Amino acid sequence: MHGYTNNALEMLDVAYNFYKKGYSILLIDQRAHGKSDGIYSTHGFYERKDMLSWIDYLNDNLSNQTQHSHKYSLNNSCGVL
Asked: Deepest of 8, 13, 17, 22, by most Cβ within 10 A of its Cβ?
């Protein structure tokens, strides 16, 4: 996940490196960043629920694969929560 005030494009280099190693990639724009909905970031309060929704999506669509999360900056708190 990208850092505060950035967007998914910030993660393209990192994502490409994982992709070359055979990983499936999900790049997202957090609330109020990039092309996402929302006006305000809640600095992890609601973003953690968004992350759980993405995990549910991945579980439903890629159930046979192990999942990993790569985070920068403020979003480290979302990954821990």
From this structure: 8
